[in-house]
Design brief:
Number of strands: 10
Number of helices: 0
Radius of gyration: 13 Å
Strand order of the largest sheet: 2-10-9-4-5-6
Helix content: under 10%
Strand content: over 45%
Mean pLDDT: 94
Shape: globular
Order of helices and strands: EEEEEEEEEE
Largest sheet: 6 strands, mixed
Length: 116
């Protein structure tokens, strides 16, 4: 069983930056492709970014390309999401999970709020 804990969210002005972290415990997630997802108020949870286990391949949803960067440190069992040039539409609860996501691994997420 993998337990995922997201952190690093907060309130930031438009144009600002945040770095999210996702720490895994319970077992190593090294073999897994990992992803970040987000859910805005009143909307479905959506895919944001994914990274292969070797960090060699990453993909992003179009709306964050060029602004967000996903990375991972397998030795620390941690996945990161560097978010730059934040926009109000990035406001959401951000979650990490395997990709494709495992229902049992969803954590509490971390709130990101971007103000004008």
């Amino acid at each position: 069983q993998v337990h995922l804990v997201e952190s690093g969210g907060g309130l930031v002005q438009a144009g600002g930056s945040l770095r999210l972290s996702c720490a895994a415990s319970g077992r190593s997630f090294s073999p897994y492709t990992m992803g970040w997802f987000r859910q805005a108020p009143g909307k479905e949870r959506e895919f944001v970014a994914t990274i292969s286990w070797s960090s060699g391949i990453s993909y992003y949803t179009d709306s964050v390309k060029g602004r967000f960067t996903i990375s991972r440190d397998n030795a620390k069992n941690t996945v990161y999401l560097q978010m730059n040039s934040l926009k109000p539409e990035d406001t959401a609860v951000y979650y990490c999970n395997t990709h494709p996501p495992n229902y049992d691994y969803w954590g509490q997420g971390t709130q990101v709020t971007v103000s004008l």
